[in-house]
Each structure stands twice: as structure tokens, then as C-alpha cells.
């Protein structure tokens, strides 16, 4: 799904089902000790994906814990080993992680969602008026894609790439997503000052998207990579 969607410098590991058992480090197990079974399984499997990807970069297995720093909304961001940037995502039927060395990549964000319309009321909450015009046009020309869900996923990927570079919140209205249905790409034009990467301000994040056929419409995945020297594509 995400494999092949991101540049070669980014290592992806993904699973479409939870293994019967996944060993967690004690610090990780403590975080989900009181969680429901579904939450424990997705938490464990996505960390298995992350450790698999990190191993390809030469990192020994270790706990992947939240930062626990900053405001409440920021405290769930994963803390990666020194010299690594990464992103994790999970939804029903899919878990994945993407990691890269900071020598090649400044930041990465990935997200996966069911390829189904967002719940009632969410579209207005996560989109700007000009985006809704685009969504209506795409829904008419390419009805097989849940474009409102893809746009939501793209904003999630942009935020996951944005936050490690800025440490700041990015509201849904602070980024205008424009998908290209033919090339499988999208742009995220920031409506606030973008991060400065290697001395270059990044005001547009570029990404790629893909759908996968399956039950109930299948899945949609998005990915954003910010390269060195301010390359937002």
C-alpha cells in the first residue's frame, strides 16, 4: 500500500492483519495495559512494523514511546531514535510505519484510512470552501475514490510531516489540499508560515496517494516527505 509510494530513502513496513502475538517492551505494554483488545492489537502491530523498518536502517529493537512533552495534543507523537524521522499509521485492516535517516530526509508523514466517505459533519469541519468545490468536481469525475476521506488523510500526512519540523499545531484550515486524480499526487499549500528546512522555507508540501480495492471500498493511503534543503516533495 505505502510500499513504493514514498522515495527510496524511506523504509516502509506494513501488515494487513495483526499477528497472533506481538512482544512489546514493558514500557510500551504499560501504555495500553487498560486499553481494549482492539487498541492493544493495533498499538502492538504498528510498533512491530516500526521495528521492522528501523532494523533495515541498522537500529536494534527498542521501545517506541510517545514524547510525553508539550501540550496534550502533542504528547502522542512517537519518539524515534537519534538520527531517524518516521511516521506510523493504522486503521481497520492495515498497519504501517515509514522511517528514514535524517541525513537524507527532514520529515515524513503517512496515513491510511478506509476508502469511504467521512462521517456526517466531518467534511465541513476539515475542509475549506475551495476544497469542497474540488471535492464535488472529483466525486463526479472519479466516483470510485472517497475524495473527502482522501483529503482528510492527506491533511493528516501533512500534519505528521509538519509537526516534527515546527513543534506547532496545524489546523485543518491551515492547509489547502489539491489532489491530482491522474498522477496520484497532491499538494498541500500552507496558509500559515511554513517550516524552515536547511535555510529554505517550505510553504507547500507535496505528497502521493493510492487506493487499494477491498471490502467496504478498500483503503486509501497518503504520504508526504520533506527532503533536505527545503525540498517539500
From TrEMBL:
Keywords: Transferase. Residues 27-100 form the 4'-phosphopantetheinyl transferase N-terminal domain. InterPro entries: 4-PPantetheinyl_Trfase_dom (IPR008278), 4-PPantetheinyl_Trfase_dom_sf (IPR037143), 4PPT_N (IPR041354), Enbac_synth_compD-like (IPR003542). It holds the Pfam family 4PPT_N. GO terms for molecular function: transferase activity. SUPFAM superfamilies: 4'-phosphopantetheinyl transferase. Signal peptide: none annotated. The keyword Transferase applies. Residues 107-184 form the 4'-phosphopantetheinyl transferase domain. This is 4'-phosphopantetheinyl transferase.
